[in-house]
Amino acid sequence: MLEVKDITMRFGGLTAVGGASLKVDKGRIVGLIGPNGAGKTTLFAIIAGFLDPTAGRVIFEGSDITPLPAHERAKLGIARTFQIVQPFAGLDVRENIAVGAYLRHARAAEAHAKAEAVARRVGLGGDLDKQASSLTVAGRKRLELARALATEPKLLLLDEVLAGLNPSEIRDIVPVIRAIRDEGVTILMIEHVMQAVMNLCDEVYVLAQGKMIAQGTPREVCVDPHVVEAYLGKGAADRLRAEEASHA
C-alpha cells in the first residue's frame, strides 16, 4: 500500500532524515520506533504531504504521490494524527469529528451522522455533546483518532497516540486500534510504548539519527544490537550480553 523510497529531508545544514525507506502492506499494523529526535515525525509529515522531501519518493497504491499536497493525499485515503493534540476547543466532540467527515460528506447532517458513528467506534459515543476542551488527555487522544478516522482513510498514520496515557488507558485503547485494522484500515504508527508495539505491530522499522537501522518483527528488533545501542548508547549491547552471561 505504501512505499517510502530513499527519503532525505534537510533543513539548512541539518539532515533530519537521510535516505530512509520503508514499506507498509495492506491490512497490517507497522511500527516506526526510535530515540527522540530520530526523525520519525519528520518522515510522517513527508508521507502525509505536510513537508516536501529534499530527495526520495512516496508511493501510495502504486502511484507516485510525492508532488501532491496534504489535502490531495487525504482524498486518496491517507490520514494522520498529531503528536501534540489540539482539538477545536470552541466546538463540541461531535463538531470536532465532523471536521474530518466533511472531506467526504458535504452536507452537515451526513457529516454529523458519520461523526457519531466514528465516536462510537473509538469510545466517545457518550461524549458527543461535551466541549472538546473538557476532555481528559485520554479523551483528547481518542478525539484526535476519531477526527482522522472520519476522513475514511485507507492508511492511518498514528503519531504517538498513546503518549501521556497511563497503563490502564493504554490497555483500553489498544483493542480500539486493533479493531480499526480489522475493519480494513492499514496503520503505520510511531510509538514509544514498547508494550503496545509488541502487542499491536506485525512489523517494526527503527529510525535513528535519520537513518533506518533495523526492521523485522517486534521481538527481532528488540534484541538487535544496533537498536539497543541507538537507545542505550555505544557498548550497551556488549554490556547486556556480558550481564546475561554472568547470570547464566
Gist of the model:
This protein is an alpha/beta fold.
What name goes with the CATH superfamily of the largest domain?
A: P-loop containing nucleotide triphosphate hydrolases
What share of residues is helical?
40-55%
Name of the CATH first level of the largest domain: Alpha Beta
| Name given to the CATH architecture of the largest domain | 3-Layer(aba) Sandwich
SSE string, helix = H, strand = E?
EEEHEEHEHHHEHEHEEHHH
Characterize the structure shown.
- The chain is an alpha/beta fold and 248 residues long.
- It has two domains: 132 residues, P-loop containing nucleotide triphosphate hydrolases (Rossmann fold); 65 residues.
- The protein is built from ten helices and ten strands.
- The strands form two sheets. The protein has a six-stranded mixed β-sheet with strand order 6-7-8-3-9-10, sandwiched between helices.
- The relative contact order is 0.16.
- GO terms for molecular function: ATP binding; ATP hydrolysis activity; L-isoleucine transmembrane transporter activity; L-phenylalanine transmembrane transporter activity; L-valine transmembrane transporter activity.
- This is Amino acid/amide ABC transporter ATP-binding protein 1 (HAAT family).
- Keywords: ATP-binding, Nucleotide-binding, Transport.
